Amino acid sequence: MNEVQPIRDPEMIEKMKSILLKQSYRDWFMFVMGINTGLRISDLLSLKVEDVKNKTHITIQEQKTGKMKRFRINNDLNDHISEYIANMSDQDYLFKSKRSNQPIKRVQAYKILNEAAQKAGVSEIGTHTLRKTFGYHFYKRTKDVALLQDIFNHSAPSITLRYIGINQEVIDRAIDEFSL
Questions:
Q1: 3-class DSSP state for residue 48?
Q2: What is the pTM of this model?
């Protein structure tokens, strides 16, 4: 099985957004929220309107680690949130199933992302792609692995770099330039 990768190409990110928006506003928003927060899919899917409405930060207890996490909502995301939740009540899940008042499940999130990725020509995708895409682009912009390690609650910078695919990228580049 291939390891899930971040979406490195900004054009592919835009292609995914476009495909998802045609499919469903909810699906588009899940993708946008995921790549702008770096939250794990389990934490993302459990968010309710009240967790993000008129807030500057998302504060959650991470399901995987049990640790508290406080994450800043950037201005663009704040605008998207306001638009998305306009007709929703505070108790609504952000990513509500079409069949119930419960949030979509991880498997459904995977199907949504995978189908859009196939249409966009993106491979090695999974639910962690959103988190990894956030991490990859955050690192590329800031070059601050310590800060990203802190955001992701990783125990070492090497884990963070491997997680976002930077190590592999460096190895690939080195091999490309290596010849005997």
A1: strand
A2: 0.92
Which of the pair, 131 or 65, is modelled with greater confidence? 131
Angle 64-3-22 from CA coordinates, rounded to 5°: 85
The answer to whether 30 and 84 have CB atoms below 8 angstroms apart is no
- For residue range 117-165, list pLDDT tens digits in order: 999 999 999 999 999 999 999 999 999 999 999 999 999 999 999 999 8
Helices 106-120 & 128-142 angle (0-180, nearest 10) = 60
Cα gap 41→128, rounded to integer Å: 7
Residues annotated as catalytic are: 40, 64, 128, 131, 154, 163
* Burial class of residue 74 (count of CB atoms within 10 Å of its CB; 0-12, 13-18, 19+): exposed
Tokens of 97: 């199933």
